Structures are given as C-alpha cells and as structure tokens.
Amino acid sequence: MTLGEGMTPLIKLERLGRELHLKNLYVKDESKNPTWSFKDRLCSSLMSKALEFAFTVFTISSSGNHGASAAAYAAKAGMDCVVFTYASVPQTMKTLIQVFGAKLVATETYPDRWKIMNECIEHLGWCLVGDYAAPLMVGINPYGIDGYKTIAFELCEQLNWASPQLVVQPTAYANGLTGIWKGFTEFLELDFIESMPQLIAAERFGPLKNALEKQLQFPEPVPEKDSVAFSIAADVSAYQGLKAIKDSGGLAETVTDHEILIMQKKLGRDGIYAETASATSLAVIKKLVDQGKLDHDDIIIAIVTSSGLKDPNTTRKVLPEVPVIKPDLQALSSVLRDVYEFQL
Ligand SMILES: *Cc1c(COP(=O)(O)O)cnc(C)c1O
C-alpha cells in the first residue's frame, strides 16, 4: 500500500556547510513524503502487512506525525483508525489527523493516552501502528522498522553506492535509527557498499546519551519537560537504538530548545524549513563541530524528518513582525535597514 512515500531528495547544504567548515554536509529531506514526515515509510510497510493479518481497526498514541501518517494510510486502505493524543499537540497536527478521517481523542495527561490505547489493543483487538508501551520501551513492530531501512538504501544509491561516514538522526524511541542501521547492514552483507556509517542520535532529553554515559544495558527514563521539539521530547528510548549506536561506534548528543530554534531559522537560509524536532540533527552537528569532534571532509547526512509547516506558530516567535509601510522608497529603505539589515 503506497501514497508515494520514499525516494526523497538528498540536498547539499552549501551555505551552512561553509559556515560549519563541513565540505560534504547533506540533508535527506523527509518532509517531501506524503504526510510531510518520514513516518510514512513506517506506516506504508507496517500497515500493508497488517492488512494481510485481517485487522479492521488501527490505533496509535501519537504527538502528531505518526498519527497523521497512520490516519492517511488507514484512509488509503479504507480502514478505521483511532488516534490518541494529548491536549497541547499543535493545531496543525490535529487538523491533519482528522482530515484523513481518523477519530482523534485527547487525554488530559500525557501518560493516560498509553493506558487507554493498551486497553483497546487488549480488549478490542485493534492493530497497534505505533510504539508499544510495555514496562520497557520496545519501539514499533519490526514490519515498521523494515520501512525505515529504505532511508539507508536510498542514501547508498544517491551517493553512488558509497556509504556516508556519519548519519545524524533526530531520535525519540529510535525506530528510525534502528531501521537505518538495519538497511546499511543488509547492503553491506550484499556487498553493495564497503563500509558502514557511524550513527548519531540527536536527542532533546537524552535517554540514549544517558545510557551510553552510564554504560547501561537498557535506556532508563531521564527527566523531561515541555519542549519545542515535541516530536522527539521522549524521556525513554529503545534498546535496539542503543545497540545500533554502539555497533556503529557512534554516539548520542542533546541540544536545547534555544539551539534548535536558532538552527531551524538558519536552515531556512538554505531553503529548507524543518520541523523543530528535525532541526535537532543539524543543531547536534553544529555542537559536535564546536567541540572539534567532526572531520571536515567526511560525508555527513542530517536526516530532516519532517516539515516546519507542522508548527509554524513556534517559528513565528523568532521572526520579526512584518513591517507595514507607506508606499515610498524612504519608508521602504528604513524598514529594510532596521528590520532586515538590508541597505538600499
Ligand atoms: C517520530 C519522529 C522522530 C523520532 O523517531 P523515532 O523513531 O521515535 O526515534 C523524529 N522526528 C520527527 C519529526 C518525528 O515525527
């Protein structure tokens, strides 16, 4: 089942690359997917398989992108979909989920949505499209992970069958990270590529970073709060993501809301409007450059997982008010100078 997901563009970041002294900095622009996020790869794969198992209702607990994608693919399949979310999710996300015909319900508290979702799976036999909320965070169904392998496949093809040195992935429960790692692993086994990239998890609160630092076998919960990067604002992550990072010799790094918003605006100057969560990959790259940890010649891929249009109100806060002027050159000249630092 497809809505035309995948084969998203790989775009060289010329301006930001120069600023960070990185010669081969690329964005894999996943905002070009049908519901404007990389979750479409997961949903296409997982939900196609679920249809073979004759499920009739799909369900998911989501902060937006995953729910919107599940709703669209359920619509395509002609199936029902019930999405659980929480009240503060951006309006655009709610609109997307509902316009695709899903039945969207919010719970008052954040953990409650998992509780009610689990009851529906257990008692009503609905098909879970999202992450399992077991006592341990285990991520999604492996058929969904298979969908994410295509990111690695496409990167190899787009780089003319070379493997990049680094792939930086905005990470919450690490399904994306795990799928990308599996994809590269399969292509190495087939001798399509000769080397593997290092994987970097770009996190907001850092359950994977914490687990690596403390050498934990399983990620443990870390403190969290509200964040502009709501799509990745997770306090836990999955074991298989931790394993993928370790196997690749990679690392996990966190950034603040402030660093994310600055990077979102900077990326706009390269013609890319990334969701706040998605700009995290480049904010982490900047942090690692500042720490002298990156090789300037390496091929570095930042995955941009979704579009900034999902939550434009947050971006507005770091942009100037639009000046209103009389139609004369003097008035224009002064606002261009004062507001935009542009001299006539
Ligand atoms: C879901 C999501 C992520 C995180 O994906 P995981 O597989 O949970 O790590 C990153 N960015 C965006 C925009 C997302 O919607």
Structure characterization notes:
With 344 residues, the protein is an alpha/beta fold. The chain is built from 13 helices and ten strands. The strands form two sheets. It has a six-stranded mixed beta sheet, with helices on both faces. Strands 5-4-3-6 form a four-stranded parallel beta sheet, sandwiched between helices. α10 packs across α11 (276-290). The longest helix is centred in the middle third of the chain and has 17 residues, at 142-158. The protein is globular. The mean pLDDT is 95.
Key features of this structure:
about 350 residues, alpha/beta, globular, binds pyridoxal-5'-phosphate
Concise structural overview:
The protein is of the alpha/beta class. The chain is built from 13 helices and ten strands. A six-stranded mixed β-sheet has the order 1-2-10-7-8-9, sandwiched between helices. It has a four-stranded parallel β-sheet with strand order 5-4-3-6, with helices on both faces.
List the helices and strands and how they pair.
Elements: E1 10-12, H1 14-20, E2 24-29, H2 39-52, E3 57-61, H3 65-77, E4 80-86, H4 91-99, E5 103-107, H5 112-124, E6 127-128, H6 142-158, E7 166-170, H7 175-189, E8 198-203, H8 207-213, H9 239-248, E9 251-254, H10 257-268, H11 276-290, E10 299-304, H12 312-316, H13 329-340
Parallel strand pairs: 2-10, 3-4, 3-6, 4-5, 7-8, 7-10, 8-9
Antiparallel strand pairs: 1-2
The site of pyridoxal-5'-phosphate has 18 residues, from helix 3, helix 7 and helix 11.
